Model the fold of this input.
Amino acid sequence: MEQLENFFHMGGYGFYVWLSYGITLIVLLLNYVMPRTREKKLVDRLNQISKMKGQGENES
Amino acid sequence: MWKWITKYASPMHFYLLANRLTPWFGWSAAVLFAVGLYGAFFYAPADYQQGESFRIIYIHVPSAWMSMFVYMVMAGAGAAGLIWKTKVSDAVARSCAPLGASFTFLALATGSLWGKPMWGTWWVWDARLTSELILLFLYLGYIALQSAIDDRRTAARAGAILALVGVVNIPIIHYSVIWWNTLHQGPTISKLDSPSIHIDMLIPLLVMAIAFNLYFAAMVLIRARMEIVEQEKNSKWVQELIVDKVSV
Done:
């Protein structure tokens, strides 16, 4: 337990070390999540357009 | 070789290649991040002067390296787009910008969080810090330019010119600590013959640097393949591959 506390304490630099690692984690995750969401939206939109086109062709 | 290049300069083949490579880069990055972080916190000893605070080095230095490397990739891809007018290189250049801006931001933010306890200040107008800040503005300028110009070809060309002009900043960042000896410390690692860092501290750093590179490779491919689909959304292969999900 004490070991764990020491680990998070980082010799008094805990705030700076963990904030650095926290910011990095968030930025790296966002750089993955944001394009993936955009990609999904794009594919959904393409699917929708293609469906609408398909319906149009069937009706005419 | 030339045949190979022309093949993957075609958007469809690049898309397929990117799809196949992304998981490899992504997962190897994840593994190396785990190894590197273990090394950073448990293997590397505390610094005799900076204590535990020096552990910020394991994200600060790779981010700073990446901020410059990504810029060179962006400018290189931009130049290739200008010369050969390949759509794929434009997509790669565009995809680099947000990643490069992120790495530059991380280098500045973690540097600031390291500077506060060690130098006693969040920020100084030191040559290294200032030139890195200019790099961030170059990335942001590139991104702004891309969203300001509607036509993709024109946007790519304007962006490539901006990126190429900005290349001049890269050697300035690199040599800034030697040319202007102010607050930021000099190079410790790039002196390949005798790096002035202990090997137990160096190994996790190199592992983290490779992990950052693999992460970048995976992320730039994810972005580039999306850019390509967007560019080519009316083409037959996008319809077949993505909408109808026909396997090729």
Q: What stands out?
A: The first helix of chain A runs from residue 2 to 9. Residues 15-59 of chain A form one domain. DSSP finds two helices and no strands in chain A.
